[in-house]
Amino acid sequence: MDTISKQNLGVSAYHWLKRDIIRGVFTPGEKLLMSGLKERYGLGIGPLREALSQLVAESLVVAISQRGYRVAPMSLSELADLYDARAQLEGLVLELAIQRGGDDWEAEILAKAHTLAKVTEVNSSEELLDVWDTRHKAFHTAIAAGCNSPQLLKVREGLFDQVERYRHLWLRETVFSAEALERKRREHAALVEVILSRDAPRAAEMMREHLMTPVPIITEVMQRRGLA
């Protein structure tokens, strides 16, 4: 097999395994048996080890000395720390974006907000989750992009990756509730209005509050499922 094909297999293994961990197919603390992974993904040991090593680096998987791998545990203390760090950084990024972003930046935010608000025509609940989540990330990414700092955006992306497992618990509670979705739509509209008014301190405060709203919901879900 050529090098490019091997790389593609490794990338595929990483994306499939990461998605399954985030979505709870593999539960916190569960041992990841190589035999089961080979059967599930139809891949050899090489690509799977490569994927597991990458997920260890992202704190989604824990390497057990000489005994394989486990899904990283989840905790309320990590939840609180990750969400606080993310909210603080996003507030800073937004203040910089308001200082540095131009007309194109504003136009992109409006376009992404409009697309997000129109998530209605989907064929299944899982498709709704995927479509809304993709558009929601695109909306927040459009806002952050105005900071024009590749380094800050890289740190931001890393925090988003680490928070994803917790966030998915909130997502399932929110996307399937018309009332919760409408509440989010109003939050996003209010946020856009303040951003376009270029009120940086107020916008940053609103962004931090907005990003912290999932924490009580995730806490309740974790306690209900015995994850906390």
UniProtKB/TrEMBL annotation:
SUPFAM superfamilies membership: GntR ligand-binding domain-like, Winged helix' DNA-binding domain
InterPro entries: GntR_C, TF_FadR/GntR_C, Tscrpt_reg_HTH_GntR, WH-like_DNA-bd_sf, WH_DNA-bd_sf
The keyword Transcription is annotated on this UniProt entry: yes
Pfam families, sorted: FCD (PF07729), GntR (PF00392)
Keywords of this entry: DNA-binding, Transcription, Transcription regulation
Domain HTH gntR-type as annotated: residue spans: 7-74
Gene Ontology MF annotations: DNA binding
Source organism superkingdom: Bacteria
SMART domains documented for this protein: FCD, HTH_GNTR
Chain ranges passing through the membrane: none
Regions annotated as coiled coil: none
NCBIfam families assigned to the protein according to its UniProt record, in alphabetical order: PRK11534.1
Name recorded for this polypeptide: DNA-binding transcriptional regulator CsiR
Species annotation: Halomonas gemina
Gene this protein is translated from: csiR
